[in-house]
Design a protein that fits this description.
Elements: H1 4-30, H2 40-61, H3 65-77, H4 79-105, H5 109-131, H6 137-155, H7 162-181, H8 186-205, H9 219-242, H10 245-251, H11 254-266, H12 276-299
Helix pairs in contact: 1-9, 1-11, 2-4, 2-8, 2-9, 3-4, 3-8, 4-5, 4-7, 4-8, 5-6, 5-7, 5-11, 5-12, 6-12, 10-12
Length: about 300
């Protein structure tokens, strides 16, 4: 059993790693807008191509390669059942990675960011429907506040963007599939990325690409794209191993706030007055979830194992 001071030191490093990961994901969110004429399909394709080797090194370095082996063995043991679901989860991951590039580079950064703001609330609802979890008082009020925000989007604004819905609903489906298969591990994510390499290579160097047309690629920026993605993922995995389940979950709310800030401060987007109530409702819901998470952290600071990182 670790000494209290040692436990506090590990937790502090975990908190720093988690916050740093969220900030770096904010950097990754900004990079597509700085890639010039490179299309979003090409941008995300190069991100995947360059992230895979970094991730291989990462998993070997942190001694998690066995999770890759376990995923491959599971697919080989039940190919007719597992492989189709892994292909679906890979497609869902590909969609999310594409949205992460499409949003900030096309002026829809806030649309995608609000999807990430809504995702924790959708996960709460999924927990009730799929896993039979019970809602406490704070979570019930949080869900209610989020519903008010969503309703305001339809009645006071122009409705929720399809990109918002794709993030808020698509990621929970992705998580449910992975957990049902028992492959909610970093190794499984590498397998999904390897599957995505086939279409990625096509978009990166195929007909219509900058490479095929003889254009110059922003090599330095693309390498940074892959490297920062890998470093952010590394820090996220480190945080997941150093922090309790409750604290790790609580800090996961930092990333969507960073994405909103990047969209407004760096990408120059703005929140329309008709959307104030939507953001207020979702913001209040996240605050309530944060309060509940903080109470859990205070009452049982080191209970439970942190969830496996899947994104």
């Amino acid at each position: 059993m670790p000494h209290p001071s040692e436990s506090l030191g590990l937790r502090s490093r975990g908190v720093i790693a988690s916050i740093a990961a969220s900030v770096l994901f904010g950097v990754v969110y900004f990079i597509p807008a700085a890639l010039g004429d490179l299309g979003t399909f090409e941008a995300v394709s190069w991100r995947i191509i360059l992230t895979v080797p970094f991730m291989v090194v990462l998993l070997i370095a942190i001694k998690s390669w066995r999770s890759v082996v376990a995923t491959v063995r599971l697919i080989a043991a039940r190919p007719l059942v597992v492989l189709p679901l892994v292909l679906v989860s890979s497609a869902l991951l590909g969609l999310q990675l594409w949205l992460f590039a499409w949003g900030p580079s096309t002026g829809h950064g806030l649309d995608v960011a609000i999807g990430y703001l809504l995702m924790p609330l959708v996960m709460v609802v999924v927990g009730v429907i799929v896993h039979g979890e019970r809602l406490g008082a704070l979570r019930t009020v949080a869900v209610g506040a989020a519903l008010v925000g969503v309703a305001a989007a339809f009645f006071a604004a122009d409705g929720l963007s399809w990109a918002t819905a794709a993030v808020a609903i698509g990621y929970p489906i992705y998580f449910v599939i992975r957990r049902a298969l028992g492959i909610d591990t970093p190794g499984a994510m590498l397998v999904e990325l390897v599957i995505l390499l086939v279409p990625s290579v096509w978009f990166a160097v195929g007909p219509g690409s900058v490479v095929a047309q003889g254009g110059e690629l922003p090599i330095a920026m693309l390498v940074m794209f892959g490297a920062v993605s890998a470093v952010a993922l590394t820090l996220y995995i480190v945080a997941s191993r150093l922090l309790s389940f409750s604290l790790f979950g609580l800090l996961s709310y930092v990333e969507p706030i960073v994405l909103v800030a990047v969209s407004i401060v760096l990408l120059g987007e703005s929140i329309d007055p008709s959307e104030y109530l939507t953001y207020a409702g979702i913001g209040l819901a996240l605050v309530l979830l944060g309060v509940e998470g903080w109470r859990s952290v205070r009452s049982v600071p080191d209970a439970g194992e942190p969830p496996a990182v899947t994104s």
